[in-house]
Amino acid sequence: CFGDLERDADGLARTSLVAGDGEVCVWMDEHFHFIHVFTEGGGIALEPMTWAPDAFNSGDGLLALLPGGSFAGRWGLNTHREVS
Known about the structure:
Blueprint: E1 13-19, E2 22-28, E3 34-40, E4 43-49, H1 55-58, E5 75-81
Antiparallel strand pairs: 1-2, 2-5, 3-4
């Protein structure tokens, strides 16, 4: 898990994976303060998160919604592949 994410002028944090001539970028708005990176069987996953590991105990980023409450955040993917 990585926190203290750097943000662009537009307030988005971006994380990219590059392999060969391709790239995938995960972007997330200011509601996401952490990104979890998972590896398994040669694959990699990036997951935007509002909370840190063990947030139930530390409270770091923990978001508690009351009954009827809601949460809205934005994240997405961009891909790029060089064309030769």
